[in-house]
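Retro notes
What went well: the complex prediction finally ran end to end.
Inputs used:
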Amino acid sequence: MRIYCLEDNPLVVLHLEMMIEDAGHDCVGSAASFAEALPQWQDLEFDLALIDIDLADGVTGMDAARWLKERGRVGCFVTGQGDLARENADLVVDIVTKPIDETALLRAIDLAGAGPQPPGSA
Amino acid sequence: MPLDLQEVLIHAPFRNDARMLASLLETHAIQSTVCPDEEALAEGLGAGLPGALIFTQEALTDRVRALVQDHLARQPDWSELTVIVLVEKGVPQALLLRHLTEQWPGSRQVFYQRPLATLELLSGVQSALLARIRQRDVRDHIALERELRHELNHRVKNILASVSSIFQMTARASADLDELKRSFGGRLATLGNVHSALFEAGGEAVDLKGLITLVLSPYAANGGAHFEIDGPAVRLNKDAAAGLGLTVHELATNAIKYGAWSVPTGLIRVEWSVEAREFRLCWRETGGPALARPSRSGYGTRYVRAAMQNLFGAPPEVRFEPSGLVLVAHGPLSRIDAMPATDRNASATVGG
């Protein structure tokens, strides 16, 4: 799977990348703010975006998740803001709270992989 | 905020009472609003927190008392409203006083006999408004404390997330427990040093030269490793301080293992420049063994790439020259300097 990381802490980005690659998936990009991610998201294809809620441009993670959902794309909150994430659970396929548990992250990736497939893909 | 704790509401619907009270207050520069009927009073009490209330005794109908009771129940914890009641001379007041005390908790009631001694009333209103100013200070302190607690919670969570990620990644890359202890300890100590530097700088801005010196100087103690640093004053925001501090730590660790600092003659030069608000950092190792590009990048290299990507929006340029490793990272100064966000927006539109 192709996975994007929207996260403002570079250590967490790196940790996510390592876990994603170890599980046999690809990390196709990362950004520290929704404003920075948005122009990339217009053209970039990915199967899942891991989204922190509190980003470099403020509490914009919900906006990012909503933007993806409105376009039929898939996001997952990876955040220390558990309460905000649960209040907006309808925007994402799963919620992983920090500090990140690898099992929880892999479950979220599996959930995203099992989500609605585009027509024609077997 | 409507009313904002300084406007006096007057409800004295009979004769000329209200107009006279309002003009008396006005001549002493006290802002007031007359509520001619109970509807206007309800609206006034709903619009915010008044500085004080003035009633005539005969205006205190059941509905008016209930409106005040309701307002007092809704006011914030820090608020204590002064209610001034103008009573008729000769009418027994003990019962009214007891009723109002019971019905209006969270208020201070003051009674003045008519005919009014205007000086007495004025000083009563003024002391009520002064009390409101003190209450407003309490309100602002509470808000500030809440904001600070929120920010502290956010920072602690962020640091824990960093430490957790560092630990997981260090554990993954360590061959044994000794290596894990050494590597994790070094990274944690750097994080701690950056935090101390931020704290000493008042929490917001860290000088780049000071930061690099802080991270590198332990290695140079007792005539150990050699380094030179040179560049203009740059004040880093907290994220940039953490990212650059840890980056320098990883580069130094790498230099000790494989690079310039693996031999006594090796030298590390760290230089940076700012031109047209573009920041450029160069880490150059010389005098060490010839380096080949490693076949697989370890944690340190990957961290440096991720941190530079995060700080500058672009990965760094890494060259393995015959003389040693060279790393160049650059990007807009606005992404790393400690200017407040509002100023940054302003300078962006003004052409900075």
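What we learned: The interface with chain B takes residues 8-15, 17-18, 30, 32, 36, 54, 56, 80, 98-100, 102 of chain A (CB under 8 Å).
What to try next: split runs per interface for comparison.
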